[in-house]
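All the exercises in this workshop are built on plain-text protein records. A record pairs a protein's sequence with a compact description of its fold. The structure tokens are whole numbers drawn from a learned vocabulary of backbone shapes. Once this layout is familiar, the rest of the handout is easier to follow. An example says more than a description, so a record of this kind follows.
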Amino acid sequence: MQPIELAVIGGTGVYRADMLENLQEKRVLTAYGSVELMTGTCQGRRIAFLTRHGKGHSVPPHRINYQANIMALKKLGVRQIFATTAVGSLNPEMKPMDFVLPDQFLDFTKSRRTTFFEGDGTGVVHVDVTDPYCARTRGLIEEKAAALGLSMHNGGCYVCAEGPRFETPAEIRMFKMMGGDLVGMTSVPEVVLAREAGMCYATISMVTNFAAGISAEPLSHQEVLDAMAMLSGNISKLIMALLEAVPLDFDCGCGSISPEMKALLRRETILDAHAITKES
């Protein structure tokens, strides 16, 4: 069977895999928990589609099992991830309804497991995140967005806040002084775990509003959902164009993994074998 080399992680407002055919539900068991996702095809290519917040947006950003999600995709054979995020803007040039491809992040999360290597027998790994979001993949996304006539900014600093509350105007002023362009709640540790697992990762951020203190109105989740509803058609077209065209033979350096990650993947293989034995 053809491997599943491409994955889409849908964030707020991106819950349906409308761009895929032959959809099937799949459950993947990992040492970090089980993951429910969808698999399907696009122009004959097999694709995994994972909703980050679960069915019905039931999981808040600080409770998402990022380790299980990324490990599940790795076990399926995924090599490249296109993730979507809804964000507020701190940058007047990145306006609501624009698309942005972050190239850096600032991590202001507090309670999340941010690595596969917790020092509990898994080893200690200091992964390089000089370029956390794959430049090759971002270039391809920019090219496809231009062909579709979408307003796309290639580059920007994503500030990842803990959530689930929105930020205060004072926090936004601080983030802006530190070089932040966008604020969201989910890109970290997802991007870091993908790098540890040796997968190309890029985030397509959709600006739904200006952040607190910049926006003239109080923020609301409904505002985000309304903006995402308007953006949904364009993001589906963009993702479909990417899935159809992204090269599967590439060498951008994102695929290298540590000996410790190889050991974790062997552990996952043993876990699968035990599960099969138990079921039989």
